[in-house]
Write a structure and sequence with these properties.
Dup_hybrid_motif; about 25% strand; M23ase_b-sheet_dom; EC 3.4.-.-; eight-stranded antiparallel β-sheet; alpha+beta; about 190 residues; Cell_wall_metabolism_enzyme; Glucose Permease (Domain IIA); hydrolase activity
């Protein structure tokens, strides 16, 4: 009887160690589901020209891209990124400031991205207090303003990041290369000779 109990305890310990090792060595989950990262077929092509997140290093996405079924239908024409008021907002890619001002009481900055076709892609950030003026050239990662304390449509402070080509809204996450989209540290595995 005692031998059976020892075998059960050892079996449970081996199972616990195996499960713990599996969890610790598994790659971290992606920050977004694959559907959030890719631009759906039939939509406007988006080159991965982004070199920086608009806020922080890898901000939590409070609400993702939800394209509307019709032009005026319900949806979410951008992504909401968690950001405290006063957080610096950065240009994701090189471009020219097309607009910096207020729209419907909210601070908005819009940047026309360099080398993205005709019509060029235009990314927007709101609510933002602009630190750049219309016509200014910006580089990736350059601060273009700060997150406003008011004007957000999120339940908690956020910045809404949108992207358009002409009149078509597209998923702004498509601007970022895959290495910027995933969270978690790199993991080095042992090499056995």
């Amino acid at each position: 009887m005692r031998a059976k109990r020892c075998v059960r305890v050892i079996t449970r310990l081996v199972l616990l160690v195996t499960l713990t090792a599996t969890v610790l060595l598994a790659p971290p989950p992606p920050l977004f589901a694959a559907a959030d990262v890719t631009v759906p077929a039939g939509d406007v092509a988006v080159p991965a020209v982004g070199r920086a997140w608009p806020v922080g290093l890898r901000p939590p996405v409070l609400r993702g891209w939800e394209p509307p079924a019709t032009v005026y239908g319900p949806g979410h024409r951008g992504v909401d990124l968690a950001a405290a008021p006063g957080t610096p907002v950065r240009a994701v890619a090189a471009g020219r400031v097309a607009f910096a001002g207020r729209v419907a009481g909210k601070g908005v900055v819009s940047v026309e991205l360099t080398g993205t076709g005709d019509p060029p892609l235009r990314t927007t950030y709101e609510p933002v207090t602009a630190s750049v003026e219309e016509g200014a050239e910006v580089e990736p990662g350059e601060v273009i303003g700060t997150v406003d304390a008011s004007g957000s449509h999120c339940a908690s402070p956020c910045v809404h990041w949108g992207l358009r080509r002409g009149e078509a809204y597209v998923n702004p996450l498509g601007l970022l290369p895959p290495w910027l989209l995933h969270r978690g540290p790199s993991r080095l595995l042992p090499v056995f000779a």
